Amino acid sequence: MSASRAHAEGRHRGHDDGVGTTSDAQERARANRREASGPRREELLAAAAACFDDLGYAATTVELIAARAQTSRPTFYAYLRSKDEAFLAVTEQVCAQLESTQQLDGIDSLPPVTVLRSTTRAFAEAIFANGSLVAQIDSRAGVDPEVDALWSTLRRRLVRRFAHYLSGLDPTTIDPCVPPQQLVSMLSDSIVRGAARLGHAPDRDREQFINDHIRLTERAVGVAAD
Q1: N or C: which end of the chain has fewer CB within 10 A?
Q2: Could you give the count of Cα atoms lying within 13 Å of 225 in the half-sphere of its Cβ?
Q3: How far apart are CA 127 and CA 138, in angstroms?
Q4: What is the model's pLDDT at position 6?
């Protein structure tokens, strides 16, 4: 067999020059970087969140995200497959932040009015802290099934947790205007959509919204405000 033929067969099998093996190894490395949580990926996601907040989803590009992170387009693709994947990852972070606001220590020993005020304020402030992102997530959920899955799961969990809390209270301490599950869904929609519109509003408008929504919640749940 001639040397050239042997080399050709080696190339076909992917042995001599390692073309197939290298390609597979590169893709595995990319996949590992995409899955890994590290400083570079977090920088890219922070840059993506800032771009989405400042420019909106449609106007944001991979190039703009990479520039905001002070890196290159190839580096972006080493950690994230697309703008959509970046938005999905940002959505995961926002959802985690919002869910954490409802985890109140010693909740069973606190008066209901204290729980309602604390969780309402914390949830609204978390939405404000994300600027326009919550409004964009809510909008993208209508057209992106993956974003919708994350967003809907969070909303269901929060509603279920709040409804469970209300249902477990002494009936003499509250007087909800409608059944807890229905009431919580209505209050959830109100605070998410209302606070999301105020993502870049002045502090006084945000504070007014929080106070108004606390009063609304207290009256709807039927707790005695001090």
Answers
A1: C
A2: 11
A3: 12
A4: 43
Q: How many CA atoms lie within 13 A of 34 on its CB side?
A: 16
pLDDT given at position 36:
56
- Residue 33 confidence (pLDDT) above 60: no
**Residue 138: left if φ>0, alpha if ψ -120 to 50, beta else—which one?**
alpha
Element (H, E) at 19: helix 19-35
- CB burial class (10 A; 0-12, 13-18, 19+) of residue 108? exposed
pLDDT digits (tens, 9 = 90+) for 113-144: 999 999 999 999 999 999 999 999 999 999 99
Q: Which residue has the tokens 């590992």?
A: 32
Give residue for tokens 């009431």. Answer: 183
Residues 6+ apart with CB under 8 A from 128: 195, 198, 199, 206
For residue 75, pLDDT over 70 is answered with yes
Q: Quick one: average pLDDT of 56-67?
A: 98
Contact yes or no for 16/7 (Cβ under 8 A): yes
63-88 in b/e form (b: 16+ CB < 10 A) is ebbbebbebeeebbebbbeebeebbb
Residue with tokens 């970046």: 86
* Domains assigned to the chain: 3-87 (1.10.10.60), 90-221 (1.10.357.10)
- CB-side exposure of 86: number of CA atoms within 13 Å? 30
State both tokens at 123: 């949830």
The Cα 74–Cα 21 span in angstroms is 21
pLDDT at 226: 62
